Amino acid sequence: MRDLILEIVYEWSKRPYQRFFKKGQPWPLGLPDLMQFPKASLGFHVACFMLKHNFELQPKLEDHDVFHVLTGTGVSVSEEIGMQYYLWGNGKRSVYQIGVMLVGLLVFPDHIKLFHTEYLRGKSAHKFYQLDFLKLLDQPLQLIKSTFQIT
Questions:
Q1: What is the pLDDT of residues 118-140, one digit of tens each?
Q2: How many structural domains compose the chain?
Protein backbone atom coordinates (compact mmCIF):
# COMPACT_ATOMS: atom_id res chain seq x y z
CA MET A 1 0.00 0.00 0.00
CA ARG A 2 2.80 2.44 0.85
CA ASP A 3 4.44 1.73 -2.54
CA LEU A 4 1.21 2.63 -4.32
CA ILE A 5 0.78 5.86 -2.35
CA LEU A 6 4.32 6.99 -3.13
CA GLU A 7 3.94 6.09 -6.81
CA ILE A 8 0.82 8.28 -6.95
CA VAL A 9 2.68 11.13 -5.22
CA TYR A 10 5.53 10.75 -7.73
CA GLU A 11 3.19 10.87 -10.72
CA TRP A 12 1.53 13.95 -9.25
CA SER A 13 4.85 15.71 -8.65
CA LYS A 14 6.73 14.67 -11.80
CA ARG A 15 5.38 17.32 -14.18
CA PRO A 16 5.96 20.33 -11.88
CA TYR A 17 9.46 18.97 -11.15
CA GLN A 18 10.23 18.70 -14.88
CA ARG A 19 8.88 22.17 -15.56
CA PHE A 20 10.17 24.22 -12.66
CA PHE A 21 13.23 22.44 -11.31
CA LYS A 22 14.92 20.72 -14.25
CA LYS A 23 16.97 23.11 -16.37
CA GLY A 24 18.33 22.40 -19.79
CA GLN A 25 16.82 20.73 -22.80
CA PRO A 26 15.43 17.23 -23.26
CA TRP A 27 17.63 14.83 -25.15
CA PRO A 28 17.12 15.01 -28.91
CA LEU A 29 17.10 11.19 -28.98
CA GLY A 30 14.50 8.52 -28.57
CA LEU A 31 14.65 4.87 -27.67
CA PRO A 32 15.31 3.73 -31.28
CA ASP A 33 18.31 6.10 -31.39
CA LEU A 34 19.71 4.67 -28.15
CA MET A 35 19.39 1.15 -29.56
CA GLN A 36 21.78 2.16 -32.37
CA PHE A 37 24.69 2.78 -30.01
CA PRO A 38 27.35 0.05 -29.70
CA LYS A 39 26.27 -2.85 -27.48
CA ALA A 40 28.83 -2.06 -24.76
CA SER A 41 27.91 1.64 -24.65
CA LEU A 42 26.03 3.58 -22.01
CA GLY A 43 23.40 4.54 -24.59
CA PHE A 44 22.65 0.93 -25.53
CA HIS A 45 22.44 -0.09 -21.87
CA VAL A 46 20.03 2.76 -21.14
CA ALA A 47 17.86 1.53 -24.04
CA CYS A 48 17.94 -2.02 -22.66
CA PHE A 49 16.97 -0.74 -19.21
CA MET A 50 14.05 1.17 -20.68
CA LEU A 51 12.85 -1.83 -22.69
CA LYS A 52 13.25 -4.26 -19.79
CA HIS A 53 11.04 -2.13 -17.55
CA ASN A 54 8.70 -0.94 -20.29
CA PHE A 55 9.67 2.68 -19.62
CA GLU A 56 9.75 5.68 -21.92
CA LEU A 57 12.31 8.47 -21.86
CA GLN A 58 10.92 11.34 -19.82
CA PRO A 59 11.94 14.77 -21.17
CA LYS A 60 14.54 16.43 -18.94
CA LEU A 61 14.60 13.36 -16.65
CA GLU A 62 16.86 11.19 -18.81
CA ASP A 63 19.72 11.37 -16.30
CA HIS A 64 17.56 9.51 -13.80
CA ASP A 65 17.53 6.44 -16.04
CA VAL A 66 21.28 6.77 -16.55
CA PHE A 67 21.71 6.75 -12.77
CA HIS A 68 19.80 3.46 -12.63
CA VAL A 69 22.07 1.94 -15.26
CA LEU A 70 25.29 3.20 -13.72
CA THR A 71 24.45 2.25 -10.13
CA GLY A 72 22.58 -0.97 -10.92
CA THR A 73 19.67 0.27 -8.81
CA GLY A 74 16.31 -1.46 -9.17
CA VAL A 75 13.00 0.24 -9.79
CA SER A 76 10.97 -0.63 -6.70
CA VAL A 77 9.86 2.37 -4.65
CA SER A 78 12.34 1.65 -1.85
CA GLU A 79 15.16 1.17 -4.37
CA GLU A 80 14.25 4.48 -6.04
CA ILE A 81 14.51 6.17 -2.66
CA GLY A 82 17.77 4.32 -2.02
CA MET A 83 19.14 5.74 -5.26
CA GLN A 84 18.44 9.25 -3.96
CA TYR A 85 20.53 8.41 -0.91
CA TYR A 86 23.26 7.12 -3.23
CA LEU A 87 23.19 10.38 -5.18
CA TRP A 88 23.22 12.38 -1.94
CA GLY A 89 26.37 10.51 -0.94
CA ASN A 90 27.80 11.36 -4.36
CA GLY A 91 27.19 15.07 -3.77
CA LYS A 92 23.93 15.73 -5.61
CA ARG A 93 21.66 18.19 -3.83
CA SER A 94 18.12 19.31 -4.64
CA VAL A 95 15.00 20.26 -2.74
CA TYR A 96 13.04 17.53 -4.52
CA GLN A 97 15.68 14.96 -3.57
CA ILE A 98 15.56 15.98 0.08
CA GLY A 99 11.78 15.58 0.01
CA VAL A 100 12.05 12.10 -1.48
CA MET A 101 14.64 11.08 1.10
CA LEU A 102 12.64 12.39 4.05
CA VAL A 103 9.36 10.91 2.89
CA GLY A 104 11.17 7.66 2.15
CA LEU A 105 12.61 7.55 5.64
CA LEU A 106 9.20 8.21 7.18
CA VAL A 107 7.36 5.68 5.02
CA PHE A 108 10.11 3.03 4.93
CA PRO A 109 11.84 3.16 8.33
CA ASP A 110 12.46 -0.58 7.93
CA HIS A 111 14.74 0.22 4.94
CA ILE A 112 17.09 2.57 6.81
CA LYS A 113 19.94 0.06 6.45
CA LEU A 114 19.46 0.02 2.66
CA PHE A 115 19.41 3.82 2.56
CA HIS A 116 22.59 4.03 4.63
CA THR A 117 24.34 1.45 2.46
CA GLU A 118 23.37 3.36 -0.69
CA TYR A 119 24.59 6.62 0.82
CA LEU A 120 27.98 5.01 1.55
CA ARG A 121 28.16 3.55 -1.98
CA GLY A 122 27.57 7.00 -3.43
CA LYS A 123 30.13 8.56 -1.13
CA SER A 124 32.78 6.05 -2.21
CA ALA A 125 32.34 6.78 -5.93
CA HIS A 126 33.98 9.72 -7.67
CA LYS A 127 31.51 12.53 -8.37
CA PHE A 128 29.55 11.69 -11.51
CA TYR A 129 26.02 12.97 -10.92
CA GLN A 130 26.73 16.28 -12.71
CA LEU A 131 28.14 14.82 -15.95
CA ASP A 132 26.55 15.58 -19.31
CA PHE A 133 25.48 12.02 -20.01
CA LEU A 134 24.17 12.87 -23.47
CA LYS A 135 27.81 13.35 -24.50
CA LEU A 136 28.81 10.01 -22.93
CA LEU A 137 26.18 7.76 -24.52
CA ASP A 138 28.69 6.31 -27.00
CA GLN A 139 31.22 5.48 -24.27
CA PRO A 140 31.56 1.94 -22.88
CA LEU A 141 29.46 1.51 -19.74
CA GLN A 142 32.19 -0.40 -17.92
CA LEU A 143 34.76 2.31 -18.67
CA ILE A 144 32.51 4.97 -17.12
CA LYS A 145 31.82 2.80 -14.08
CA SER A 146 35.49 2.00 -13.53
CA THR A 147 36.63 5.59 -14.12
CA PHE A 148 34.21 6.89 -11.48
CA GLN A 149 34.58 3.85 -9.21
CA ILE A 150 30.87 3.13 -9.35
CA THR A 151 30.24 -0.21 -7.66
A1: 999 999 999 999 999 999 999 99
A2: 1
